[in-house]
Write a structure and sequence with these properties.
With 445 residues, this protein is of the alpha+beta class. It has 12 helices and 12 strands.
């Protein structure tokens, strides 16, 4: 009877296996189609939720072009006070970049009561005692007169071009030749030039405009200290302040990272299963680590700045708290994976627990610990830039101040470039230090 039913049982089993296989294939096929559909539905929701269409309509590419041009160029301002008639010339319109008394840019000429500003592409603006005229090739002449009511301007016949913004109180013309702004109180001409003007010396320095050979000659004649002083304490670019800000940024990252490592290492023994058998203590240590790393460093920065006030030390403490949680988890996991045989060998010599930890545990986990600490140090160098903007210290503060002014974007690009170079330097330094400490230098390869 069993022989007769064996083929039937085998057939039922095969049918069951086929049904299960078909079910698995259908479920897999359904998931393969469902995931892309869900992704498309989410993208469609995001498209309407974030109003992408409205964002495109509100976009102002010309403002982006002006911003990009400001990053690699500078503006020379020719400004007239419409109330007094006084004309001033300054790089970026700042007092620190103002031309000395009796001097002006070579592309500005004065003939009697008329001051002419020559601009690229044949554009020309003329200051008259009672009005302003702006010649635009291919369009015509704009004449504007300031009064108590605002700005009275006349234009060539026809509709106004897109590059002219006209209102009762202000007329602004923005072209590739520069920018002209006319208001009731003043008239300004912004002429763009490529480069970072006054990066080495301000207009007040006797070394401004000198070439390298001429500067070298002055330096050899005993003026090296004066040359360095005028460069290092440049009022426009503030090289001394920038260098100190970079040092503060690195110091925040260093104190926060290595301080966290010092605090986290002994606490990690409490969280490691093989060193702390008591579960209550172990869980308390782990939840403490979760609390510290569960709150972002920026949140800790805001909390600590209210408690201790602004400053680099507040940023260092914020990094320390966050990294203590991260290091505690990483270090405790490394301790749980140590080789017990090495510890037993140390114990067999009669060593005390502290000695067993020092010679049996620390040498095993040191490569992992140092590697993680140096990686975090490199990452925190970048994070300290943002934290410094909140705590009022480091290069982050200077970067934020330059962004808020919205006029010296070449300074913004300068600070960003320095931050990138600083990160490159920290990457190279941490890599070299890892090789020295972990692999024993070149001989370790």
């Amino acid at each position: 009877m069993s022989l007769a039913t064996d083929p039937m049982t085998a057939s039922v089993s095969a049918a069951g296996l086929k049904a299960r296989a078909d079910h698995l294939f259908r479920a897999k096929r359904l998931r393969a189609f469902a995931l892309p559909v869900l992704a498309l539905l989410y993208l469609a929701y995001a498209f309407f939720a974030f109003d992408v269409t409205g964002l495109v309509e509100r976009a102002r590419p010309e403002n982006g072009a002006i911003l990009m041009r400001d990053i690699y160029s500078y503006k020379t301002h020719v400004e007239r006070d419409n109330r007094s008639g006084e004309i001033s010339y300054a790089i970026e319109g700042e007092r620190k970049g103002q031309y000395p008394e009796g001097t002006r840019p070579e592309w500005v000429t004065v003939a009697g009561d008329v001051t002419t500003v020559a601009m690229p592409q044949g554009h020309e603006l003329r200051y008259y005692p009672d009005h302003v005229e702006y010649d635009i090739p291919g369009y015509g002449t704009i004449s504007a007169r300031s009064s108590a009511r605002g700005v009275d301007a006349t234009y060539p016949e026809g509709p106004l071009p897109d590059y002219i913004s006209a209102a009762a109180n202000r007329v602004m013309v923005t072209t590739d030749a520069g920018r002209v702004t006319i208001t009731r109180n003043r008239t300004e001409v912004f002429r763009y030039f490529t480069g970072w003007e006054l990066f080495f010396f301000t207009l007040q320095s006797p070394y401004h405009g000198m070439g390298f050979q001429e500067l070298a000659g002055h330096a050899l004649n005993g003026e090296a200290g004066a040359i360095w002083h005028d460069f290092w304490y440049n009022e426009m670019w503030r090289h001394a302040d920038v260098a100190w800000a970079l040092f503060e940024t690195v110091l925040m990252a260093f104190l926060g990272t290595f301080g966290a490592a010092i605090v986290a290492l002994p606490l990690a023994f409490l969280a490691a299963r093989n060193f702390t058998p008591l579960m209550v203590v172990r869980q308390a240590a782990r939840r403490l680590f979760d609390l510290f790393r569960g709150v972002d460093a920026l949140i800790w920065t805001i909390v600590l700045s209210r408690a201790f006030g602004p400053g680099p030390m507040t940023g260092a403490l914020a990094i320390l708290l966050t990294d203590t949680g991260s290091f505690g988890k990483l270090f405790s996991e490394a301790l749980e994976n140590v080789d017990e045989k090495q510890i037993e060998g140390i114990r067999s010599t009669g060593a005390r627990p502290v000695q067993r930890y020092r010679f049996g545990v620390i040498p095993q986990v040191t490569p992992v610990l140092m590697s993680q600490v140096l990686y975090f140090f490199e990452s925190n160098t970048r994070s300290a830039t943002v934290i410094g903007a909140i705590t009022g210290g480091g290069i982050g503060l200077m970067l934020t101040q330059a962004m808020i002014t919205q006029k010296d974007w070449e300074e913004v690009s300068y600070y960003i470039l320095l931050v990138v170079l600083m990160v490159f330097a920290m990457d190279a330094f941490s890599g070299w230090l890892r090789r020295k400490l972990i692999k024993g230098g070149e001989g370790g390869h």
